Amino acid sequence: MSSKIDLHSLISNWQNSSVNAKEHWSGTFSEYLDLVKANPKITRNAYQRMFDMIIEEGTETYLDFKKEVVRYKFFSDQFNNGKDAVFGLDVQLMKLVNVLKSASLGYGTEKRVILLHGPVGSAKSTICRMLKKGLERYSHQPQGALYTFEWIDEKNELKGLLGKDVKVFPSPMNEEPLLLIPEEMRTSLYEQINKGQEGSFRVHVDGELSPPSRFIFKHLMEHYDGDLMSVLKHVRVRRLFISEADRIGIGTFQPKDEKNQDSTELTGDINYRKIAEYGSDSDPRAFNFDGEFNVANRGMIEFVEVLKLDVAFLYDLLGASQEHRVKPKKFAQTHIDEVIIGHTNEPEYRRLQDNEFMEALRDRTVKIDIPYITRWKDEINIYKRDFNSQKVRGISIAPHTVEMAAMWAILTRLEKPKKANLTRLQKLKLYNGKTLPNYTEDNVRELRKETQREGLEGISARYIQDKLSNALVNAQQSNKGSVNPFMVFKELESGLKSHSLLSNEELKAEYKELLGVVMQEYEEIIKAEVQRAISADESAMARLCSNYIDNVKAYTQKERVRNQFTGNDEEPDERLMRSIEDKIEIPESRKDDFRREIMNYIGALALEGKKFNFKMNERLHKAIELKLFEDQKDSIKLTTLVSNAVDKDTQEKIDIVKTRLIKDFGYDEISATDVLHYVASIFARGDVKSR
């Protein structure tokens, strides 16, 4: 019998640990000034707060082909277990953070619209979503605290100034409380606050009150004959928590059909129900300051598909960015404090680039390109976040399935190398950090520089995710226990026919050809794995290596080798040595150099008191592995897997290989069997190459 749920205990624990319950604060204006003196940073503007939010989560610095890159941990989304983590865009995110830093210092970029520009599915919306969620979280933390105020008339002294029977009138735009100080007083107040402060931050708040607060402030000053202290007694300062759901500190605007668009969505509209109460539609208390610009004050506003804005909206946007002001209907320009970020897709940007109205916007825009990822391992991380054993239940994903899908996505985004002897696949591997003969880090940097639109075209991660999902669903419906790369290849290819953003038939043919390149690469990978699984008998490898070393030692020292079976001294076994060296393409002319190199390496280890092991030398390890595979493959008779005629002895050996695939390469029973059958078919047609 199940026990009852103790709701009371759950709620009690939540309230005791809740950030909201612990951090709510309200007090007088004087008490707020004490808070400011103790922690001046609570008065930061929106750009300063966003920049600090990112920096405070930490950074990592690394070299990317000799270029120093800073990775901001904020974009790893650690608080949300990496759900919205951004991969492979560290350079672009550096540019974004540099813009925020410049804006926070007042160097001019605070007067610009930050425009994230790139192809569909390149993480523009994800970056904005992370910034919005980050602001929400940061406002709950002690270091991210910010405050606003509300007008109060608890004793009903003001004769309905705040509204009929209204005792509390919140600041409609969640304004900074220091805006209540008249401009003539601010300099002296700031001097007192900043005096003796440590660190570089100094309090300096720009702007003025919103029309409703200005209206109430003005009437209170008249009511109290200019006694500011009496006016401030009607002010209650409180902690402000940013929330997109509650429309506090975050605004989002998405263009709609032109007939349904109205600029009041950005700057607010008249509240007709209040006109009867206040007697005029020009009374600011009868106006709803609930446009996206208004609610985003103190935080950020996101413009989705900003280049689709109607001209009327465009002027509002330009004024908001350059002057930090918006113009509500019937009222004076109103100060705003918010980060303005827009994003647009590549086709939209190209189409509207020559629009006459775009010139003014471009002049007030800081464009940051957000391209597709071009590093293979970063693309893999995107898919492994959603397609892993924790999230995918009841069906397994064979090794290399996600990796091969990611490889194809990257290949479609890479420009053809200008060097005739370099393929796109090789370029992908170079970008991924692999070393190739005759290519240095400087060469890879040059490869990147010579591209013009790399990463701005190609297949998006969304398309890959959709096709991986299709393959999983189809496998479940057909009762297949495992999804392998070939099933995904089929989905990727069939989807090209109806791809909504791909109408160029030549491009479709090119992408299909690249899919063939990936399939060939996959074949090479699984052949190598099966070869390694077959030759993975370490004792046999150690014996073969020991035999090789004995012969090499005798050869280099011009000695004879004792035959362990006959006991006779014989010449070094040249056939054995060459059969191993051929596997790693050591030519006859270089065999002496290679053998001396091996002996020198063993000698150097001996001087350090270390014993040589075949795993220590990667090239020799590979050669021994391939030689053992060649010796054993015939005895295993892997080709018999193609038919049903497998004898008991062969089956036992195949089972051993399968076990090694599962243990050493991450396969399960189904995928290991599938791979063995496929590689067996390759052996059957003689299509085997040494790797």
Please explain how this structure is put together.
Helix 17 packs parallel to helix 21 (485-496) and helix 22 (505-534) crosses helix 27. Helix content is 49%, strand content 11%. The strands form seven sheets. A five-stranded parallel β-sheet has the order 8-11-14-4-15. A four-stranded antiparallel β-sheet has the order 1-7-5-6. Strands 2-3 form a two-stranded antiparallel ribbon. The protein has 28 helices and 19 strands. The longest helix has 30 residues, at 505-534. With 691 residues, it is an alpha/beta fold. The relative contact order is 0.07.
Briefly say what this structure is:
With 691 residues, this protein is an alpha/beta fold. 49% of the residues lie in helices and 11% in strands. The strands form seven sheets. It has a five-stranded parallel sheet. A four-stranded antiparallel sheet has the order 1-7-5-6. A two-stranded antiparallel ribbon has the order 2-3.
Main β-sheet: number of strands, strand sense, barrel status? 5 strands, parallel
Structural class: alpha/beta
H/I helix tally:
28
- Name the helicity range: 40-55%
Silhouette: elongated
Strand line-up in the sheet with most strands: 8-11-14-4-15
Strand content: 5-15%
What integer is the average pLDDT?
87
Give the strand tally: 19
Q: Any low-confidence stretches, pLDDT <50, length ≥5?
A: none
Summarize this structure as a short list of keywords or feature phrases.
alpha/beta, single chain
